[in-house]
Amino acid sequence: MLSRLVLTDFRNHAEAVLRPGRGFVVLTGDNGAGKTNVLEAASLLAPGRGLRRAPLSDMARQGGGGGFGVAATLDGDVEIGTGTQAAAPERRVVRINGATAAATALAEWLTVLWLTPAMDRLFVEPASERRRFLDRLTLALRPDHAGHANRYDAAMRARNRLLAEEGPPDLSWLTALEAQMAEHGTAIDAARRETIAALSERLAEQPPGPFARAGIALEGWDGAATLAADLAAGRHRDAAAGRTLVGPHRADLVVTHLDKGQPAALCSTGEQKALLLGLVLAHAELTATRTGRAPVLLLDEVAAHLDPSRRAALFDRLAATGSQVWMTGTEPAPFDGIAQATWFDLADGRITARSSSPATAPPPPG
Fold first, then answer.
1. Which of 330, 337, 365 is nearest to 29 (CA)?
2. Strands 296-299 and 112-115
3. SS3 at position 181
4. Bridge partners of residue 82, in order along the sequence
5. Are 19 and 352 in contact (CB under 8 A)?
6. Residue 365: pLDDT band by 50, 70, 90 thresholds?
7. CA distances (Å), 69 to each of 33, 42, 66, 88, in order?
């Protein structure tokens, strides 16, 4: 878990220090107070571009020094941090225990998963969004997954540039790039399928309940065994298309509502949200069992549109995962069912810690 989170010139927070406890961490405040910004800062403590996938320069506070910093202390007094400097606003710097490190190294120390209102459309968005979601789930179980994904993407971009050049390409270099893509693409595909198999088993074991059970599968590409040969055979086609048309970047996560036997894309908005919640809950439980390290969950406005019985069921399931669960809301009332939590109130760019729920705390004296 995070025992300390520090934001410096991040979004609307000039300087903020949060000391969350175990279990639930609840952030309440008006719209625009900066609740989601805190979750975004925490999401940057994992590989990737965070829950908004925004340019790094957009994260620096307007009127600040031009860069930003996000730092945290983990259990065991491990210090991790990331940020940018004004001279290089799009260059991310990562440090672990004071030493500069690659962003992919963060996965060795912390697992972070999130749900945001924008993800409610995950099942009707392009396949790239579902692959990104699957890769986040996979990374929790296989910390080396980010490294394979980065190397695959780098080799693919280099191959695409080489094929786009005028004149015949350097065949030895092209073959070497395709060998790299085959090596890392095979690892990506294997890790994804391993995650899907383990998560499917976990989901199948769960009885019907308030959160829809999802069936999951990987479709759209199944050529790991022949990827190097397929890339070589498709050079002219890929050069004409301006992109690589085979590989794990063409796969899609297909989700089905198990109890209805219906594709998630055809389910109602409420059912899609329930499917997502069920997936994240099952995955958090799976991760804790497989790795001995429960993920940090960032849930933005997750309780706002649930009825009281589903909220109570959600809080019970979340507590059982052993995760540190960060949740946001405009009002404290939806979180009344939580017995114990760390509470923060956000207003006017300030973050104030409270000892109990704002809904149940005694009024201030006088």
1. 330
2. parallel
3. helix
4. 70, 94
5. no
6. very low
7. 19, 11, 11, 13
Q: Helix or strand or coil: residue 309?
A: helix
What are the angstrom distances between the C-alpha of 70 and each of 6, 217, 362? 6, 36, 33
Q: Is 360:341 a contact under the CB 8 Å cutoff?
A: no
Which value, in Å, is the radius of gyration of the alpha carbons in the chain? 22
Query: Residue 141 pLDDT more than 90?
Result: yes
In the three-class reduction of DSSP (H, G, I as helix; E, B as strand; rest coil), residue 97 is classed as: coil
Q: For 322, list phi and psi in degrees, rounded to 5.
A: 80, 5
Q: Which residue has the tokens 């109990």?
A: 356
Select from 235, 312, 331, 316 the least CA-distant residue to 35.
331
DSSP 185-209: HHHHHHHHHHHHHHHHHHHHHSPP-
Residue 167 phi, psi dihedral angles, 5° rounding:
85, 170
Dihedrals φ, ψ of 309, to 5°? -70, -40
Structure tokens at 110: 């912390």
Calculated CA dihedral for residues 98, 102, 106, 107, nearest 10 degrees: -150
pLDDT given at position 286: 94
- The β-bridge relationship of strands 88-96 and 99-101 is antiparallel
Closest CA to 208 of 259, 284, 257, 273: 259
> Mapping DSSP to helix (H, G, I), strand (E, B) and coil, where does residue 236 land?
helix
Query: And the tokens for 255?
Result: 């989700």
Nearest to 141 by CA among 79, 80, 202, 226: 202
pLDDT by residue (tens digit) across 66-87?
999 999 999 878 999 999 999 9
- Provide the Cα torsion 6, 328, 12, 358; round to 10°: -80
Which are the contacts of 132, defined by CB distance < 8 A and separation ≥ 6?
none
Structure tokens that stand for 267 in this block: 């389910």
On whether the CB atoms of residues 140 and 293 are closer than 8 A, the answer is: no
Cα–Cα dist 340/281, whole Å: 19
Q: CA-to-CA distance for 124 and 187, rounded, in angstroms?
A: 27
Residue 44: closest CA among 66, 72, 21, 24: 72
Element (H, E) at 81: strand 78-85
Q: Whole-structure pTM over 0.85, yes or no? A: yes
Q: Residue 184: which of 128, 142, 141 has the closest Cα?
A: 142
CA–CA dist 280, 114 (Å, integer):
8
